Amino acid sequence: MNSGRNPGSSIGPGTNTPRPPVKGRGIATQVVHRFSPQRRDGFSQDEDIWWSAVDEEGLPAPVRTQVTFEQARSALCGNDSPDIFFEQSVNPYRGCEHGCVYCYARPTHSYLNLSPGLDFETRIIAKRNIAEVLREELSSPSHRPSIVNIGSATDCYQPVERELGLTRSVIEVMRDARHPFSLITKSSGVERDLDLLSELAGHRLVAAYVTVTTLDAQLARILEPRAAAPHRRLRTIRALADAGVRVGVSVAPQIPFITEDMEQVLAAARDAGATSAFYTVIRLPWELNGIMREWLEQHYPDRAARVLARIQDLHGVDAAKRLAGVSYDSSYVARMKGSGVWADMLRQRFHKACERLGFHRERSELDLTQYRPALAKGQGVLF
């Protein structure tokens, strides 16, 4: 269970205090990733891992987003974990400008020799040929249809999508192949594609999920700095519902003593038109462990230790593993919902709220029988 360990500190060299926040970003530092030759256990003394640019007031200067392109060799990514509802996923981008501090996908930037810290939210990789590769894969005689999720490891409607339109091109391929899919987002950008989604929804080929972590706008600004504001996400739920798209709300992740308004979020989402709901608890794999600690020390120093201890409680981390820096249980049995007393209390709150509000806790059933590989090749379209 070493994926819960803290591979490096995010506290500044020679000090016990974290670096000040970078305006508009979730993380203030270039956290050393686990494959870096610079990595050390405990504190790092490598000055070049810190973002050193400052403005005229001596505060960290804004960091511009860089977008680079890659040629994707594959589009569909398989999943065999029983705690995840989809078997395949498509992610048009690597990294995410939304900068959500808690994002479990941050450690994936390490495989690119980039930092899960600032790099993850400022160094975005766009898969320029993702639609063409997906079309080839869906038209293959060996492809077996299952629910495909768009946006499992990056928000498919992050800001760069407005210019590049890669997500829309992926949806167009799914439409042509009559292949069912779901998507999940925190962005109002999904409203751009209501023309496609509303038609597909009428044929039970799409379901959408909008993540609303909290209704507290001030908290959202530091927790998810470049995602849509909570009230805007509720308007997106309403827009999807009015367009006939099956829409659910993800109240995730649940962070002890930070996101405390689960019931209010569920009620607001129901009023906006959501018909289903689910949640997960916060997970802290690999470098995310240190990243979350940095964020807590920056924004909630008075409760940082308390929050981390409760996260460890949620995941049943024993005393020995806590001393080793472990913060969560990475096994598929417990990682999504946690285990133990505190996880049970959270589960009861969620279930009671859903029952009171009339929410379905099952995800929308989509129709797998309409898939036609020949249509994926462009020999016809669905509508």
TrEMBL record:
PANTHER family xref list: SLR0285 PROTEIN
Taxon lineage: Bacteria, Pseudomonadati, Pseudomonadota, Betaproteobacteria, Burkholderiales
Biased composition (Polar residues): 1-17
Transmembrane regions: none
Domain of life: Bacteria
Protein name, entry field: PA0069 family radical SAM protein
Pfam families hit by this protein: Radical_SAM
InterPro entries, sorted: MJ0683-like (IPR040086), rSAM (IPR007197), rSAM_sf (IPR058240)
Keyword Acyltransferase set for record: no
Domain Radical SAM core residues, every copy: 90-266
Range of residues in the leader sequence: none
Organism (species): Diaphorobacter ruginosibacter
GO molecular function annotations of the record: catalytic activity; iron-sulfur cluster binding; metal ion binding
Annotated segments matching region Disordered: 1-24
Keywords: Iron, Iron-sulfur, Metal-binding
NCBIfam families cross-referenced by the UniProt entry: rSAM_PA0069 (NF033668)
